[in-house]
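The records we work with from here on pair a chain with its fold. These numbers are not coordinates but entries in a learned vocabulary of local backbone shapes. To see the layout at work, look at the sequence and tokens printed below:
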Amino acid sequence: MPITQLEVSGYRSVRQLVLPVGPLTVIVGPNGSGKTNLYRSLYLLSASADGRLAQALAEEGGVPSVLWAGSRDKKPVRMTVGVTLDDLAYELSLGPVPPAAGKDRESPSLFNLDPEVKEEYLWTVESKRRAVLMERKDRTAFLRDSEGNRTTFPMQLWAGESVMAQLSEPHRFPRLAELQRALRMWRFYHHFRTDPEAPQRSPQVGVRTPVLAHDGRDLAAALQTIIEIGDAEGLERALEDAFPGSRVEIQAPQGRFSLFLHQPGLLRPLAARELSDGTLRYLCLLAALLSPRPPAFLALNEPETSLHPDLLEPLGRLIVDASMHSQVWVTTHAEPLAQAIAKRSRAEPVRLTKELGATVVTGRDVPEE
């Protein structure tokens, strides 16, 4: 289910923004322009489908930290994220927990960083017309079942998570289950550990790994999986493109996988613990983008971090190749990377800037409230 549109309002620097999403979307802009906020809004949708919405927001400092900080009208303080996928449209609106939200509704709750889902909708979209499949207001919701009958949710909803995380009846509500499966399968990479204590620098017990972990901890096993059951020739070409004359070797005595990189002119291969941060990060990007199990949607947040400028051109080619199998979203502040991608694809970069503290797309008017 490809994403065709993203709508965000009231989230950090994003006051209100509607953005078309294509097979390959590149978001470029200076630091602080709001690129990561758009990336995180997509991540929050995936987390909500997996029952991790409250935890994902807590990692950002809780709801009070993620709400739009600029001037507001008298409407309730809320953030809203919506997405259109094929013939489905989904929207999630949340705000802070009310001051008195303890069990007896008289004493305040200590969980004041948690979200409270205010509204949640799922529509089918046909010929630009929407038909409601699910509507939630606070702690109650109704859904259309597989026969088209209106069904009220049989119990009070927990305010801190999506309906998707609380209803498990795919045979009765197949479109809601379809949406949940789609969102849960999205894949995000925004931080590969490269510090001296990073797991991938030391031997790790390995199993076949068609999907690299979000932090790259199973890099050696992921690369060996590509070599054995994935696009081994593509891995060789990508290595030659980035590091001419180099090759990867994986050793696994007693099942503990270690990564080595052979480079021209050196009499021995370099172990993972000896590699530069940029080289190790690039190898993680190779494993992520050459996954033998490509996702429907793959998002990379500032993949150029710690890379030498000479690696941006090969990375751009790798990203374009990955977009042949997955819908790809990239946020970057590196103009050379955006141009390298544009040169090999039809994906013209979406450029962000700030106007009166709000994230806007360069060349577009700020949407009216």
Observations:
- The two ends are 30 Å apart (CA to CA).
- The first strand starts at residue 3 and ends at 11.
